[in-house]
Amino acid sequence: MSQTIKTLPPSVTRLIDAFSQLPGIGPKSASRLAYYLLRAPSEESLALADALRDLRARTRYCSICQNITESDPCEVCADPTRDQGLLCVVEEPLDVTAIERSRSFTGLYHVLHGVISPMNGIGPDDLKIRELLARAARGAAREGPAVREIILATNPTLEGENTAAYIQRKLAGSPVRVTRLARGLPVGGDLEYADEVTLSRALEGRQQM
Description:
The protein is about 45% helix and about 15% strand. It is built from eight helices and seven strands; from the N terminus they run ααααβββαβαβαβαβ. The mean pLDDT is about 90.
């Protein structure tokens, strides 16, 4: 820690350190954010604190799709007009938002909360893959909505492709049709940054694995 940081009050240093833990926020950006809040009206700082408190207190995982929600089941899973037999598997909750923006998908979702990445110590058991396989099995056993197709919409990265391949192997032999998003998505890109047209074409052009 620099000499400048050491001379700051502990409360300011603590806030800078907290901001620095966020993705994409370096030490300089963290310092700018902290100083902004110091100069901002107290109502603005307190509103941020309240929002963070509510985030932790009110959100949970949907027991069906594992998406972030304040109600269980989430609004998508509870919607009777959605196609119960069509599941779209994504890496993160933001990917659900991206696909919903395209207005091209009327099924349900399953959020993995990451990808298989041995280099980072993340294996299949660290993701929500077990829950996905259980959904497919319950449908096959007629203990829940029958899942006829699972669309693997992991990002077109090495980790995303390996995760999709792992899930496809686990579903081999089941009556569920497994498809992959078409290559309308840029290789190496993240789903949340794709535009609506690209996502729409990728969904329409999905292929059997």
